[in-house]
Amino acid sequence: MLADDSTLLREGLARLLADEGHRVLAAVGDADALLAAVAAEPPDVAVIDVRMPPDHRDEGLRAALAIRERWPGVGVLVLSQYVERRYATELLTGSPEGVGYLLKDRVVEIEEFLDALDRVAEGRTAFDPEVVRQLLARGGQRRSLDSLTAREREVLTQMAEGHTNASIAARLFVSRSAVEKHVNAIFTKLDLTNTATTTHSRRVLAVLRYLGA
């Protein structure tokens, strides 16, 4: 489902997704219409603008959080014109699986947008590199992060964007086993080795630590 008050962007995305083999269940212009559409037929993913009518403030974000609470199986990919730190961290600190945050400029990079959409649909995360960079500028829990090597920071940055170990290996031109070693080292240095969670959850915790959330 698509929710954006810009008819041009909304219809353009609908046509793009249809051309790529996706079925668009609804394309609406405000948060109330989105929630009604999701209630009628929950989609795999909802692509949502942060600011929509009537006030053009955070209506889209509040709808996204409501969807995550009422329909946890629905992925949420938020689009924003600017990096809004509070919104990104609020999405992550709730139930971060199946969420994404992209700048609208990223939508014109079709392959990256479709990749992010697929990751969110699969229950993973997809965060715009610029969002990650600006969130890191906040500072946060630096002591344990200072122990990471330059390569471990690269790997963690890729994890924060939502990439799998295989994807990270391809992007950094290293072997998958090397990435796995770096990921385990990150878990150890961030004191996540004894956490009674799955590997996927530890990845989320590591990202949250990294973002200082």
From TrEMBL:
<feature type="domain" description="Response regulatory">
    <location>
        <begin position="1"/>
        <end position="119"/>
    </location>
</feature>
<dbReference type="InterPro" id="IPR011006">
    <property type="entry name" value="CheY-like_superfamily"/>
</dbReference>
<dbReference type="InterPro" id="IPR001789">
    <property type="entry name" value="Sig_transdc_resp-reg_receiver"/>
</dbReference>
<protein>
    <submittedName>
        <fullName>Response regulator transcription factor</fullName>
    </submittedName>
</protein>
<keyword id="KW-0597">Phosphoprotein</keyword>
<dbReference type="GO" id="GO:0003677">
    <property type="term" value="F:DNA binding"/>
</dbReference>
<dbReference type="GO" id="GO:0000160">
    <property type="term" value="P:phosphorelay signal transduction system"/>
</dbReference>
<dbReference type="Pfam" id="PF00196">
    <property type="entry name" value="GerE"/>
</dbReference>
<feature type="modified residue" description="4-aspartylphosphate">
    <location>
        <position position="49"/>
    </location>
</feature>
<dbReference type="InterPro" id="IPR039420">
    <property type="entry name" value="WalR-like"/>
</dbReference>
<dbReference type="Pfam" id="PF00072">
    <property type="entry name" value="Response_reg"/>
</dbReference>
<keyword id="KW-0238">DNA-binding</keyword>
<keyword id="KW-0805">Transcription regulation</keyword>
<feature type="domain" description="HTH luxR-type">
    <location>
        <begin position="141"/>
        <end position="206"/>
    </location>
</feature>
<dbReference type="GO" id="GO:0006355">
    <property type="term" value="P:regulation of DNA-templated transcription"/>
</dbReference>
<dbReference type="InterPro" id="IPR058245">
    <property type="entry name" value="NreC/VraR/RcsB-like_REC"/>
</dbReference>
<keyword id="KW-0804">Transcription</keyword>
<dbReference type="InterPro" id="IPR000792">
    <property type="entry name" value="Tscrpt_reg_LuxR_C"/>
</dbReference>
